[in-house]
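We were asked to recover a plausible sequence for a given structure. The inputs and outputs are reproduced exactly as logged, with field labels preserved.

PROBLEM: sequence recovery
POSITIONS: 157
GIVEN STRUCTURE:
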């Protein structure tokens, strides 16, 4: 891939390449929305490092105006590596991410973000478990019809 390409387009191409074998990537490629990375607002408390799913679920639970989103990002430091991540968005679609290192003021923002807003009741059982680093989409990757049905999306074959 070219180095000066649009990061969101690069992320979509990575998902398309993986999508032939990974149902989660197909789901994100088909239904994921692009999000503009943003630094954590001062009024948002810092979450726990490496616990993005729990941090975001807690933030969305405490702030009903926010939506919980799971997806993938390309970190600023790694050009061709998509990593699973969770964040929140406000009504205007602005990213609100409380996880340290990802969105701390003064640190480089991710290059690209693609995700799907999930209902809290769908995410909660998978995020409030012993291994919260997986998230709901990863936990349900072998049963994506649960996700598509919950979101009213067309099923992926």
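RECOVERED SEQUENCE:
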């Amino acid at each position: 891939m070219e180095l000066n390409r649009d990061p969101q387009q690069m992320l979509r191409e990575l998902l398309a390449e993986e999508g032939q074998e990974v149902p989660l990537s197909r789901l994100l490629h088909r239904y994921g929305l692009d999000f503009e990375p943003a630094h954590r607002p001062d009024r948002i408390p810092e979450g726990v490092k490496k616990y993005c799913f729990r941090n975001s679920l807690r933030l969305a639970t405490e702030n009903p105006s926010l939506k919980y989103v799971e997806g993938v990002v390309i970190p600023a430091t790694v050009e061709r590596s998509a990593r699973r991540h969770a964040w929140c968005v406000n009504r205007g679609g602005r990213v609100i991410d409380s996880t340290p290192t990802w969105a701390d003021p003064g640190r480089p923002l991710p290059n690209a973000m693609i995700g799907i807003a999930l209902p809290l009741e769908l995410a909660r059982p998978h995020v409030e478990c012993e291994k919260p680093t997986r998230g709901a989409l990863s936990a349900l990757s072998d049963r994506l019809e649960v996700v598509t049905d919950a979101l009213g999306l067309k099923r992926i074959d």
